[in-house]
Amino acid sequence: MTSFADITTMGVGGPIAHFIEPTTRVGLIEAVEDADSKGLPLVVIGGGSNLLVSDEPFNGVVVRDARRQITVPDEAAPVEGGDRTVHVNAEAGANWDDFVAFTVQLGLEGVEGLSGIPGTVGASVVQNIGAYGQEVATSVESVEVWDRETKTTRDLTPADLRFGYRYSALKASMYAAPARPADRFFPTPRYVVLSVTFVLTHSAEGAVGYGQLAKALGVEVGDRMATADIREAVLKVRAAKGMLEDPTRYTSPAMAGTKREANILADLRRLAVVNESAGIALGDDGLPVPDRNRHSCGSFFMNPILTADEAAALPEDAPRFPATLPDGTPGVKTSAAWLIDHAGCHKGYRVADDAPAGLSTQHTLALTNRGGASAADVETLARAVQRAVKDHFGVTLVPEPVCVGVLSDLDAPVSDLDS
């Protein structure tokens, strides 16, 4: 029996009663509709990188879209002197980094800065993923969805999707308030993504839009570089933070076929190089030794958005950035990583020396499975971090992953979810 531990990047979670992998558009819609008609709990999962599920058996349906085709309906090469716009359509089950690699290899600009983010194309628009000066929202033309309420397909525009920082109307449909699950559509949105059409630019060069990335490339922010070079630099910067998924997970039978083999092999080579530089030899199976810092959900807590009075109560050196509160009034965003570190939960923090869950040794925002952890262990760590930050600064951190059966009694404050 497949478990959430088998199909999530954190590697925790209980057994699944019904695990379905539809290979057609109709099959995907039927699987969702069948679960809904029977009143069964439903999880539509992508790469499992933004999901934390309890250790208890999940007596519902988990659907993983096995459609992974990426197509280019336009001319593959630009017309001389003409429009350099290129549309690319990807089915929701396509691995996100497969999509990025495909566009870079095709000589397209627009998503190269989003290299290495785990998950699928479908999940990318739910979360509005972003990194290193780019957001998926800026490249989306339309999203085809199945509306679980009206039981129809719809094509949603960026205006319909109401993209914000790590936010979309799709994500909003799951929550009654920040981190408070809606009664009806949770943990799967009302709108299930079927495919996404992106609008990119035919160019072998892209703009370097982030300081840390510019430093890695030895250029200035705004300079243009080959998109292939930008992609490699992003992957190196993410690897240094432990913010890449562990490519050895794709050797598991539960993950077979979910990512293109050529890209898995490239990721394994990159991990082997990183390990070699740290003096870590290959494992007995000939594969790179897994990096436990990568067994996570990525950034686990969202950056809080505070009122001016709340922000004024923070120490003078706490990071502060302009932001907007849910009611449209000005707010102040601060850094969850800074709060965690200054509350005494430093890199590598564990609730006990032998605890199997701990903060990444490279990044305080990542909660990691150090080996043999359960969802309960991760929850214990999350609550310890939340408590420390609350005690020190009066701020309650809100988890970024979708949490099913864990961390469900949080009294949620204002957060990025509505920014």
Automatic annotation (TrEMBL):
Entry's Gene Ontology cellular component terms: cytosol
EC number: 1.3.1.98
Compartment(s): Cytoplasm
Root EC class: oxidoreductase
Domain FAD-binding PCMH-type: 12-203
Taxonomy, superkingdom: Bacteria
InterPro entries: FAD-bd_PCMH (IPR016166), FAD-bd_PCMH-like_sf (IPR036318), FAD-bd_PCMH_sub1 (IPR016167), FAD-bd_PCMH_sub2 (IPR016169), MurB (IPR003170), MurB_C (IPR011601), MurB_C_sf (IPR036635), Oxid_FAD_bind_N (IPR006094)
Pfam families (UniProt xref): FAD_binding_4 (PF01565), MurB_C (PF02873)
GO BP term (any one): cell wall organization
Protein name: UDP-N-acetylenolpyruvoylglucosamine reductase
Provenance organism: Bifidobacterium myosotis
